[in-house]
Amino acid sequence: MSEAPSSGNNPPPGETRPPEARPAEPRPIRLRDALHKARIEAADRAGVVVDLRDAEVARLEILNEALDPLFAQVPEQVDLFDRGISQGETPRLWIDVVAHVVMGRDKRIYRFVQDTRYGRIVLAEAHEVNAIVAAVTDYVARRMVEREHALAPVKPPDVPVEAPPRRRGRFWPFAFGFVLGALALFAVAMYATLKNL
Q1: Is the residue at 125 inside a domain?
Q2: Which domain holds residue 102?
Q3: Cys-Cys crosslink for 100: which of 12, 63, 92, 127, Cβ 3.0 to 4.6 Å?
Q4: Total domain count, the chain
Q5: What's this model's pTM, rounded to 2 decimal places?
Q6: 88-131 pLDDT, tens digit each
Q7: Residue 106 resides in a domain
C-alpha cells in the first residue's frame, strides 16, 4: 500500500519540520553599517553637487562667450574690467572687481550683482542670456563714463580775483628810521649843551 502524498502541513517522513515561522526580529543596526550607508548618501549628494556646479559653469561660459563682442569694443587703455570665471564653491563670471554674474537658486536664472559699500545689489535677473548681455553692456558704458569724468581735468570754480595788497616801498622805513635817529642825536646834544651851561 502506497503512502498518500503528504499535505503541506505534514513534512515527508524522515524530514523534520522547520520551527514555526516567527515574525522576524529587527536586527540591530551596527555603526559600521550606518557609516557605510551615510558615506554612500554623501557620495551621491556630492555627485549631484558637482553636476550642478558643472552645469552652472557651463551656463556662465555661454554668457561669457556672448559677452565677447562687447568687450572686444572696449579700448585697450581702459583697464577697468577683468572678466573671468571663478570656479569656487559658487561659480561666478566676474565683470570687474565689484560686479559679477552668478546663477540663481534654481540654477537656471542669471543674476547680475554689484557689491557696494552698503551691501550687494541686484542689477539684473533673467533666464535669457541676451537680457544679461544688455544689462552688462549698460553697466560697462556707465563705468566708462565714470572713468572719463574721473580723468577729466577739473576746472577750478570761478573765484573773483582780488587785487594783491599794495606793497610799501622799502625806502620809507629806512628814511623814517634815519630821521628818528637824527632827532635822537640832536636831542642828546641839546641836553648835553643845556647841562653844561
Answers
A1: yes
A2: 52-150
A3: 92
A4: 1
A5: 0.54
A6: 888 999 999 999 999 988 878 999 999 989 999 999 999 999 99
A7: yes
